Q: What sequence folds into this?
């Protein structure tokens, strides 16, 4: 398994645990009488699952197992795969921090961090798709 | 990789980019309030990423990788799976555009029915292929 895939898969597992910790906290809010402000974590919970775990796991496994691109570059561009990894995770971490902060005390700093998060995750999707496209081919 | 899987997986990659683009617009709106219309994209964002990206990628990869038969049509009835491809993607389009069209409830229903029939056609192909190799 290539190194970048190991990073994707282990990070996906970390986000899986974080997602369910967040989910438990959200579910505990009403029965334990916790702060209503915790509801701001709801979109974070869904994105930890869908981006941090599911999409990340797919990115890692696809890079590892899809048909070879060429003999010289069997998995396409490894630097692109690393760039997608850092952009996806940097963007997601920014969101996890800035989204609840913006909901609690809206301000330009948190707002522009959300814009940076959006741009990073969007770029990650684009780089992954570009790097994978040529490997999706008939044999 | 068979041609049908290429179609499913490349379409999934397109949905990934479109779905993340819509999500980025929604997040920009959350951060800056510069694009208030972005909230209307939320149902499309979810539909495209759940069905267009994730489910479609799984279906395409499963058709490619599940155990094959020792016959000429070694992945079963390909026509059924092309039908699944058409129905799934037509269903996604109908569901995505339904809020913008008159009679949106009926259009969403038609979209969900198309998705359900498409995924049923895929399941009918995949079911007998879920077996140990060589059987």
A:
């Amino acid at each position: 398994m290539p190194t970048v895939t190991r990073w994707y898969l282990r990070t996906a597992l970390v986000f899986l645990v974080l997602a369910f910790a967040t989910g438990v906290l959200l579910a505990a809010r009403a029965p334990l009488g916790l702060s209503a402000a915790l509801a701001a974590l709801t979109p974070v919970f869904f994105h930890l699952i869908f981006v941090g775990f599911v999409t990340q796991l797919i990115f890692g496994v696809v890079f590892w197992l899809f048909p070879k691109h060429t003999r010289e570059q069997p998995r396409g561009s490894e630097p692109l795969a690393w760039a997608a990894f850092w952009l996806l995770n940097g963007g997601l971490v920014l969101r996890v921090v800035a989204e609840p902060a913006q909901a609690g005390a809206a301000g330009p700093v948190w707002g522009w961090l959300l814009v940076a998060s959006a741009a990073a995750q969007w770029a990650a999707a684009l780089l992954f798709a570009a790097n994978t496209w040529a490997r999706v081919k008939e044999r | 990789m068979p041609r049908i899987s290429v179609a499913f997986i490349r379409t999934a990659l397109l949905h990934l980019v479109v779905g993340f683009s819509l999500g980025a617009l929604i997040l920009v709106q959350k951060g800056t309030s510069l694009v208030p219309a972005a909230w209307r994209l939320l149902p499309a964002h979810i539909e495209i990423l759940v069905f267009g990206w994730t489910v479609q990628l799984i279906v395409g990869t499963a058709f490619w990788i599940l155990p094959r038969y020792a016959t000429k049509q070694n992945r079963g009835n390909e026509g059924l799976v092309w039908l699944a491809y058409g129905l799934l993607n037509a269903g996604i389009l109908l569901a995505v555009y339904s809020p913008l069209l008159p009679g949106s409830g009926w259009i969403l229903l038609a979209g969900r029915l198309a998705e359900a029939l498409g995924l049923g056609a895929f399941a009918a192909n995949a079911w007998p292929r879920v077996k140990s190799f060589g059987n």
User: Anything to note?
Assistant: Chain B touches chain A through 26 residues (CB under 8 Å). Chain B has one domain: 3-129. The mean pLDDT of chain B is 95. Residues 3-32 of chain B form the longest helix (30 residues).
